[in-house]
Amino acid sequence: MTDGPISRRALLAGAAGALGAQALERAGLPVPQDPTKVPGTPVSPLGQRSPFERPRRVPVGTGQGISLTPLQNLSGIVTPADLHFERHHAGVPAIDPQRYKLLIHGMVERPTMFDLEALKRFPSVSRLCFLECSGNGFPSYRDIRPDLTPQLVDGLTSTSEWTGVLLSTLFRDVGVKPGARWFLAEGEDAAVMARSIPLEKASDDAMIAYGQNGEALRPEQGYPARLLVPGWEGNANVKWIRRIEIADRPFMTREETSKYSDPLPDCTARLFSFAMDAKSVITFPAYPVTLPDKGWWEIEGLAWSGRGRVRRVDVSTDAGRHWAPAELQQPVLPKCHTRFRYLWTWDGGDTTLLSRAADETGYVQPTLDELRQARGRGTTYHFNHIRAWTVRRDGTVVFGLEG
Amino acid sequence: MTDGPISRRALLAGAAGALGAQALERAGLPVPQDPTKVPGTPVSPLGQRSPFERPRRVPVGTGQGISLTPLQNLSGIVTPADLHFERHHAGVPAIDPQRYKLLIHGMVERPTMFDLEALKRFPSVSRLCFLECSGNGFPSYRDIRPDLTPQLVDGLTSTSEWTGVLLSTLFRDVGVKPGARWFLAEGEDAAVMARSIPLEKASDDAMIAYGQNGEALRPEQGYPARLLVPGWEGNANVKWIRRIEIADRPFMTREETSKYSDPLPDCTARLFSFAMDAKSVITFPAYPVTLPDKGWWEIEGLAWSGRGRVRRVDVSTDAGRHWAPAELQQPVLPKCHTRFRYLWTWDGGDTTLLSRAADETGYVQPTLDELRQARGRGTTYHFNHIRAWTVRRDGTVVFGLEG
Asked: Which of A387, B22, B272, B302 has its CA 20 to 30 A from that of B41?
């Protein structure tokens, strides 16, 4: 990986002589032989990525309204806004922020319609937290194949710094009536996405978010405003929110009857399974990486819990026989991606890498067998079992447990 | 700001009837009368901002290699990568990451040339921290005008999550010889930007960064790799780094003799004034905002210190007669932007707003007079004195102390 010890003379001779003209035109960009000998490009109002870097979301299927974050290309915990995963049921609506209104009504003293300026005038809060689609990890549970990348396995999760007004602030403003227990959150997209949320979440950390990573929400993230219910499944974080109705019971919308309930083996179902349980995924090494040689490699990945902070992540490099704690990138924030790192010496043999997260509630990420026993093979959401990556002696890495 | 209490019937009638056709074509985008009645746009590999949002860096002068972050448009602490301020001395070089090399030589046991893969193979770290140009705030010290925005006053600071390899890791790899005290960091731009850095910074938190906000560095931030010396003036964070030479003394490059030293009134100069002292700036309300009415307003701003955590920010709404502590957005991270918020009741009269940061070392942001007495009127860098915004009774806000 390194050229090894060399003299400065050898470096300068190499830099001046060894590069062919072809190398100077990679990525369609003319690259000077020596960048110190030509003026660079001037400042710009808006930066662009290097033409050598092309991270991309990957759409799933056709017309399904799903695109996945390239987890294997990312470092740290922040997801760039243009790479945040997408999930929408009828496309991204175009909304003029000057016409935007949010109505709060139902069991309130003062039904009120807020425009965007009104929402922004209230005291604001910001927090880094993850969003995850409740269906994230579907292929790892119901469609296991060796050629899955971290993006294809778990790309329906991203982390942003969200800014907005706490729902508790707005609810104090409109005056919630005694006996209220739930509220409906309704979106202004063509699906009129609607979910019922327990009122306690509004007293806790729910907010109407209008900021993402320092700027306005991106259109596919609910521009100009969305509900944010930190730690809860993505679909409950209703985007393009236009209406909140407060009531004494849940509304049983189609999104919580035909969808977003979890059928169980005993023919009952888990309803309102909002919280995303603790989970982790190794993002390096992973398919389609090939390790060029044995020796030290840093295993990296992400862990998160919808119930609070990740307390620890254990890594196994021998298919689960032994486990050792990974290092957690500080600060570990509640309901936020946490990057973990583990320095591993690969002996060059076949092996399987696993990661297992535990959160501050004491919950430990289950095995695939444990989750299947509890939920059945036909469940459609909340696939937070332990993921496996198999490293073969030729250095290739594939998804799942082999052999 | 709000429409006030209304009935749901009034809302629906208003939404359906009151909007003219012109309103539907703002920003050149056809906006549907009712977004719930037309399918939205499909998923995309890379997101775009809403056409209604156009945050922009502002270039300073012509050909000076300076552009400023729009602080007044931002929320939270993360700066989107394409809005990170720019400062370069000879433009942004185009560098092919496959040809990139970093040489570490001088007083080392094993002079070594690292390619990008080699740098990325080492154990990595990520941290959120600010970068600030040492000349940030120049207009607030030497060119005070009422029509300065937060971007024009202090837009040479931004915060990112940086990822890379600690310099201490690389220096262990090459073996630093006894007696070494400084190292030279040299860039591959046409200015061949070069600074001398004390070796202690390498044992502390200096890193070679290749990641910014989850993705590769942006070209104007040093792609594919830069030196990051957290908390130290921007120019010492040498971009496009190609060479590190370890020595027993500083190199006295032109960037630390003709520039980046601070002349003092007694005809001596502060040399190697690396650390950015504690500072704060109110970003709302600020020019060119006009407050439409008296009453509650949330004052917001950013504070930071190159020496550690911000411990407190005090705000005065009466030109410095009284001060009260602002709320600090959690978590407060060392050497990182910290957003502060202060709920203020404006009585409708003329007044001046001030903010004053203190850091965990006990250092308190000085007044303009104090800084001028210590450094003289002709100094060119490190303008961290208290900023003032004057609110006039007509609601307009201007930079500086009036009356």
From this structure: B22
Closest CA to A226 of A338, A333, A84: A84
The C-alpha atoms of residue A81 and residue B186 are separated, in whole angstroms, by 32
CA terminus-to-terminus distance, chain A: 30
Compute the nearest-CA separation of B75 from chain A (Å).
4
For tokens 């369609």, the residue is A28
Backbone angles phi, psi at B235, to 5 degrees: -65, -20
> In the numeric block, which tokens belong to residue B89?
């001395």
Q: What's the average model confidence in pLDDT over A206-212? A: 98
Are residues A188 and A93 in contact, defined by beta-carbon separation less than 8 angstroms? yes
B7 touches chain A (CB under 8 A): yes
Return the ∠ at Cα B322 (arms to B317 and B326), rounded to 5°: 65
Find, among A381, A361, A385, A389, the residue nearest to A371 by Cα.
Answer: A385
The answer to whether A76 contacts B112, with C-beta atoms less than 8 Å apart, is: no
User: Helix or strand or coil: residue A273?
Assistant: coil
ipTM of the modeled complex: 0.93
Please judge whether B83 and A53 are an interchain contact, meaning their C-beta atoms are less than 8 angstroms apart: no
| DSSP-assigned beta bridge partners for residue A396 | A290
Q: Which residue of A has its CA nearest to B212?
A: A75
Cβ of B44 and A67 within 8 Å? yes
DSSP string covering B305-356, please?
-TTS-EEEEEEESSTTS--EEPEEPSSPPTTS-EEEEEEEEE-SS-EEEEEE
Which residues of chain B lie closer than 8 angstroms to A6, CB-CB?
Answer: 111-113
Chain-chain contact of A8 with B92 (C-beta, under 8 angstroms): no
Does position A12 have pLDDT exceeding 70, yes or no? Answer: no
Query: 213-272 in A: which are within 8 Å (CB) of B?
Result: 213-216, 218-220, 223-224, 240
Distance CA B220, CA B84 (A): 9
Distance CA B27, CA B49 (A): 12
* Mean per-residue pLDDT, A294-298: 97
CA distance A287 to chain B (A): 17
Strands (E), A39-85: 58-59, 66-68
Q: Are A348 and A313 in contact (CB under 8 A)?
A: no
Burial of A361 (0-12, 13-18, 19+ CB in 10 A): middle
> H or E element: which one contains B8?
helix B8-17
Token pair in block for residue A208: 């109407």
pLDDT along chain B (403 residues), means of 10: 40 39 58 93 96 95 88 98 97 96 98 98 98 96 94 98 98 98 98 98 98 98 98 98 98 90 90 96 98 97 98 98 98 98 98 98 97 91 97 97 72
Out of B5, B39, B56, name the one closest to residue A90 (CB): B39
Does A192 contact B at CB distance below 8 Å?
A: yes
pLDDT tens digits for range A159-171: 999 999 999 999 9
Token code pair at residue A67: 């695109």
Alpha helices in A62-137 (DSSP H): 116-121
First-to-final CA distance of chain B: 31
Domains, in order of start, for chain A: 66-267 (3.90.420.10), 279-399 (2.60.40.650)
Q: CA-CA distance, A143 to A141, in Å (whole number)?
A: 6
pLDDT beyond 50 at A252: yes
The type of residue at B145 is R
In DSSP terms, A113 is beta-bridged to A103
Contact (CB<8Å) A26/B341: no
Chain B residue numbers with beta carbons less than 8 Å from the beta carbon of A56 are 45-46
